[in-house]
Amino acid sequence: MQQTPSTASSTTSSPAPASTAYDYVLDHRPAPDGGAPRRVVLLGSTGSIGTQAIDVADGAPERFRIVALAAGGSNLDLLARQAVHTRAEAVGCAAVDLPTLRRHIGEAAAAAGVTGYDPDLFVGGSAATAVAAWPAADVVLNGITGSIGLEPTLAALAAGHLLALANKESLIVGGELVKRAAAPGQLVPVDSEHSALAQALRSGTYAEVDRLVVTASGGPFRGLKRSDLAHVTPEQALAHPTWKMGRMVTTNSATMVNKALEVIEAHLLFDIPLERIDVVVHPQSIVHSMVQFVDGSTLAQASPPDMRLPIALGMGWPHRVPGAATPCDWTKAAQWTFEPLDEEAFPAVALAKRAAAAGGTGMAVYNAANEEAVDAFHDGLIGFTDIVDTIAAVLEESPDSGPLTLESLLAAETWARGAARARCGR
């Protein structure tokens, strides 16, 4: 990866890397008006991203048609209802066998008064990967949580689909492996922060970018010192003040691991060196991120905290979807505040930057150790501050991975999970 100089004056003469955000930020695909709706595959359809994506598609049937769904299986009844509702051509589920999935879809169809619905079904650990490669698709929205989204991400890219990526872990863990698999214009971010950055980046060239500023809500423990966090409970960690998310992402937000992962994702997506990506705490969650340019101008993307906006933009990129979300009401008084990140209380961001800078499988180890430590925290085996301490210890112990391949990534993950479990007493 090409690295640009860190000073503002020298960035003006730096060419963009061969594969950078500008390959798609400035991409101009044909406008959807008057054409057929984009055919969308949803991975992780029963989660927060997936359910909101279906809301977006329902609100814009002229733009989007859901053609395939996949989910882990923790909410099989919902998956079956979604399949019937969207008339998806393919349905995948990791946790059940074929007769069970067929039975649930049949029961959901009968309850809805639908006859003759018979989608292709995929089950088992490779179900999401098979659905990601569904040939009758234009866009794959990967909303799976965790590094298990890596192989579906690679499958969607190999199939030539536009990939709207909400599964940040697959890019963070896969790193250059994912970037090499993506053609120009094929990878679009869905996280609100990276969607904001992509929107702001359209206002300048790569050489004109000075810094990226990623905003953080601060989570439920904003303003607390490290000593205050020692006795935090799982219930407190899940009480996010702004966003409604799943257990893993919400806990990651409380530890700032989620923000750490987003910094690395921004680095990989936009080819901006890690030392030129900052985190600022913005508790109102209205400004979703900012781009600072070399002339001193900073452009911010602002909207109320509603994931339907970046989801709609990701599925329809580069075109906006009218009415996707409610805008800010500028007739009402409002106050926005910005605070520096307390890296002593929340060391996750600095730790991730060091792991990413070291290269290889460092971020795969970071992410796997975190996932195991979060589960251990919710099982009552470790304390809240032990989550990031576990990541640091496992990173310190991790062996040299050798060349970066899918096999070396998976091996590093397996090792890191075992090391984290042992440290957490699992």
UniProtKB/TrEMBL annotation:
Domain called 1-deoxy-D-xylulose 5-phosphate reductoisomerase N-terminal: residue spans: 40-175
Name under which the protein is recorded: 1-deoxy-D-xylulose 5-phosphate reductoisomerase
NCBIfam families: Dxr
Signal peptide start and end residues: none
Any Pfam family hit: DXP_redisom_C
InterPro entries: DXP_reductoisomerase, DXP_reductoisomerase_C, DXP_reductoisomerase_N, DXPR_C, DXPR_C_sf, NAD(P)-bd_dom_sf
UniProt xrefs under PANTHER family: 1-DEOXY-D-XYLULOSE 5-PHOSPHATE REDUCTOISOMERASE, 1-DEOXY-D-XYLULOSE 5-PHOSPHATE REDUCTOISOMERASE, CHLOROPLASTIC
Residue positions binding NADPH: 46-49, 72, 75, 167, 169, 246
Keywords on record: Isoprene biosynthesis, Magnesium, Manganese, Metal-binding, NADP, Oxidoreductase
Coiled-coil spans in chain: none
Organism this protein belongs to: Arthrobacter zhangbolii
Residue ranges constituting the 1-deoxy-D-xylulose 5-phosphate reductoisomerase C-terminal domain according to the UniProt record: 187-270
Gene Ontology biological process terms, A to Z: isopentenyl diphosphate biosynthetic process, methylerythritol 4-phosphate pathway involved in terpenoid biosynthetic process
Residues the record lists as binding 1-deoxy-D-xylulose 5-phosphate: 168, 192-193, 217, 240, 253, 258-259, 262
Pathway listed: Isoprenoid biosynthesis; isopentenyl diphosphate biosynthesis via DXP pathway; isopentenyl diphosphate from 1-deoxy-D-xylulose 5-phosphate: step 1/6
Annotated family: Belongs to the DXR family.
